[in-house]
Amino acid sequence: MIVIYLKLSNNERNQIAGKLSEGVSFERVLSDIRTNLTPKLKFIKIPQSQTIENRTVDAADDWAGRFWARTWCNTKAPNFCETGDCGSKLECAGNGGAPPASLVEIALRGWGGLDYYDISLVDGFNVKASIEPVDGRGADGRYGCKKAACNHYINDECPQELRLYGSTGVVIGCKSACLAFNTDQYCCRGNYGVPEKCKSTDWPVNWPDFFKKRCPDAYSYAYDDHSSTFKCIANTYRVTFG
């Protein structure tokens, strides 16, 4: 497990953007992909005996971005990581992670002076993820200053049509319907590019319902805002993968 503490500061965006855009990397031990999880951050080896690793990064108070986990990584392979890869580079340097990947998204000091954060499975799932404010304030209710999490290991139950198999033949990710089928309706684009015309209940198969039942806090498709967006004011956020 890796825990990242996101601390707000007055640093300029261009000083911290490179750090915060990098995916957190995990290396899985092939003999047991569930229990033998060796965490790595920026490909720095963490001792096998160490089960939890913490890292802290600073962010400007108006920063917005995302965190994700890269898994099944091998620096000698054509693609560094089999999920979340960012162009086969050691450091992502602003590049996004290849889906499927569980995303932790946050926009600091947005509308109304609040921070907005979420867990997104719009690009699919690869590892469990969560984000929570530390000593948060300024928002109440179900989505006010609460922990947002996807704590269900979805890969074990992923429908056959959505499965991503790794080089060893095991399921290492669960694709979104958009990624798996690439249709305008499933991707909420073209004629389906507005919320009124892209409701998952109208789809041929309601694939987002599979994700939502297992991770009700998370975005299950592009227009799942009403039950997925959290808000708060905090100077520190705890982001956890694994």
UniProtKB/TrEMBL annotation:
InterPro entries: Osmotin/thaumatin-like_sf, Thaumatin. It comes from the Eukaryota. It comes from Popillia japonica. This is Thaumatin family.
